Amino acid sequence: MRGSNGGRLVAAAAAVLGARGVYRLVARGELTLDTGIGRTLQPLGPVPFEIAAPRELVFEVIAAPYLGRTPRALAGELQVWERGSDMVLAAHLTEVKCGTTTTLETVRFERPERIVFRVVRGPVPHVLESFVLTETERGTLLSWEGELGTDFWAAGRWWGGRVARQWERAVRRSLAAITVEAERRAG
């Protein structure tokens, strides 16, 4: 009897450690579970940013690290794997509780009004988002919005909610830095 209880305890411990390992792989974007089973979509944004700079300049600030040479200051956050004239394949690195999450995304540039991001690999199987730039009297309105999709019904919705909060936080930080740089250059 005692041996079977010990075996069950070892099996339970292995299952917990295995689940924790899978969680960490998914959270870091190293394992994407994309089955389409029980897929739930949730909106991201919209998050508007007023930027006191011309639309073309704001577009250039966003596009330059992707289409040109990526500055060393962004090396820990952005790695462009492939460059084309209007599209790149890029890895975005974001610090989260369990380490660094890596998302691999295509980024398409529609000068000067839109930049579209689509996740290829990451902590969730589906993210489609865009930066839409609209000219205003004061400069540019940059609006971020999109959708995030997860699989597995309620469990996926729970996971998607956690990821969406971190995702929006990262986008807000990025847009704040874009705002500062565009306004500095316009000044």
Structure report:
The mean pLDDT is 90. Helix content is 39%, strand content 38%. The protein contains 3 helices and 7 strands, in the order αβαββββββα. It has 187 residues and is α+β, with helices and mostly antiparallel strands. Strands 1-7-6-5-4-3-2 form a 7-stranded antiparallel sheet. It has helices at 2-27, 55-67, 153-186, and strands at residues 40-51, 78-83, 87-96, 99-110, 114-121, 126-136, 139-150. A hairpin with a 3-residue loop joins strand 2 and strand 3.
Number of strands: 7
Output the radius of gyration: 20 Å
Approximate shape: elongated
How far do the termini sit from each other?
A: 78 Å
Estimated helix fraction: 25-40%
Main structural class: alpha+beta
Q: Number of helical runs?
A: 3
Q: How is this structure best summarized?
A:
With 187 residues, this protein is of the alpha+beta class. It is built from three helices and seven strands.
Defining key terms:
187 residues; alpha+beta; seven-stranded antiparallel β-sheet; 3 helices; 7 strands; elongated
Q: What's the helix and strand layout?
A:
Elements: H1 2-27, E1 40-51, H2 55-67, E2 78-83, E3 87-96, E4 99-110, E5 114-121, E6 126-136, E7 139-150, H3 153-186
Antiparallel strand pairs: 1-7, 2-3, 3-4, 4-5, 5-6, 6-7
Helix pairs in contact: 2-3
